Amino acid sequence: MADFTLVDTHTHLNDSKFAGSEAEVIARANEAGVTRLINMGDTLQSSAKAVELAATYDGVYAGVGIHPEEIYELGTADDEQLTAWTREKRVVAIGEIGLDYYWEKDEEKRALQRRMFIHQLDLARQLQRNGTGNLQNGLVYRR
Questions:
Q1: Which of 43, 73, 78, 114 is the least buried, fewest Cβ under 10 Å from its Cβ?
Q2: pLDDT for residue 12 is more than 90
Q3: Kind of pairing between the strands at 34-40 and 60-64
Q4: How big is the CA angle at 15 (ends 14 and 16), to the nearest 5 degrees?
Q5: Interval 15-31 mean pLDDT
Q6: Domains of the chain, with CATH numbers?
Q7: Distance CA 68, CA 112 (A)
Q8: 60-82 pLDDT, tens per residue?
Q9: Phi, psi of 9 (to 5 degrees)
């Protein structure tokens, strides 16, 4: 047995392509030495599935949040749902959040991504959770 632990910090076991085979995928990860998986939600629906999987399988944890490609103006009900999920023992992060300027070229939608990225990071701070996600071309300064 190795003297270290491997953790996959960004999985999407909640993706429909894994439906019905989650236990097998987790077992393969364990056989490869990955003992912990943090499964990210990218919509409210996939976040709910991430929470469900974390409650079902040992070594699986969840991140809950809205991915930049799926983002919309988050309201009180969204914040309350994300907050409620963080009360679950194995919900460890607000994510998958971020900026995705690689795919999104519309400046208004990019501005929405920025506002909601800050919004979700602030929620993570308030809830004392990590914020996790991606920054695809999101930190490139352009005049």
A1: 73
A2: yes
A3: parallel
A4: 110
A5: 96
A6: 6-136 (3.20.20.140)
A7: 9
A8: 999 999 999 999 999 999 999 99
A9: -90, 5
